[in-house]
Amino acid sequence: MKKIALSSIVAIIVFFSVTTVKAQTASEIKITTSSICKSCKKTIEKALSTEKGVTKSSLDVATKVVTVNYDAAVTNPDKIRLAISNAGYDADAVKANPKAYKKLDDCCKKENAGKME
Ligand SMILES: [Cu+2]
Predict the structure, then answer these.
(1) DSSP character for 108?
(2) Dihedral class, residue 104 (left if φ above 0, else alpha if ψ from -120 to 50, else beta)
(3) Distance from the alpha carbon of residue 73 to the mean position of ligand 1, in angstroms
(4) Cα–Cα distance measured from residue 57 to residue 30, given in angstroms and rounded to the nearest whole number
(5) Across the beta sheet with 65-71, what order do the strands follow?
(6) Hey, which of 10, 17, 25, 102 would disulfide with 73, CB 3.0 to 4.6 Å?
(7) Ligand 1 centroid vs 56 CA: distance in angstroms?
(8) Cα–Cα distance, 96 to 81 (Å, whole number)
(9) CA of 35 to the centre of ligand 1 (A)
(10) Ligand 1 mean position to 2 CA, how many Å?
(11) pLDDT tens per residue, the chain (117 residues)?
């Protein structure tokens, strides 16, 4: 009987410590990108989906702001901005990786913003 009580106490402690750690490291950041269209949204969200520690990302095409949910124990805002740059887009003050930018569709290049529909 004592064993059962003890193990359930241990289980409760483990459960609470795990949930507390999760709550502490689950973070959210909003990053302004140079995205233009829905295709950009797909590219950026896809790039972030393969980024370690990123749990969710959602880009709002109208505001160009991508909201990223991530695990702060695994990644950080700098790494997330770098991932966006490596996808070919500016991320806050981090400029787009030139090589990745060149590979973008013409309609997705910021220099063409407003020229095409
Ligand atoms: Cu685009």
Answers:
(1) G
(2) beta
(3) 31
(4) 10
(5) 26-32, 65-71, 54-60
(6) 25
(7) 20
(8) 9
(9) 6
(10) 63
(11) 677 777 877 776 667 776 666 667 999 999 999 999 999 999 999 999 999 999 999 999 999 999 999 999 999 999 999 999 999 999 999 999 999 999 999 989 988 776 554
- Print burial letters for 75-96: b (CB count within 10 Å at least 16), e (below 16): bebeebbbbbbbbbbbbbebeb
Instruction: Give the C-alpha separation, 103 to 89, whole Å.
Output: 11
Please state, in angstroms and rounded to a whole number, the distance separating the CA atoms of residues 27 and 48.
15
Q: Which residue has the tokens 């990644």?
A: 75
The pTM assigned to this predicted structure is: 0.78
Domains and CATH numbers, the chain: 27-112 (3.30.70.100)
Question: Using the 8-state DSSP alphabet, how is residue 45 labeled?
Answer: H
Cβ–Cβ under 8 Å, residues 12 and 19: no
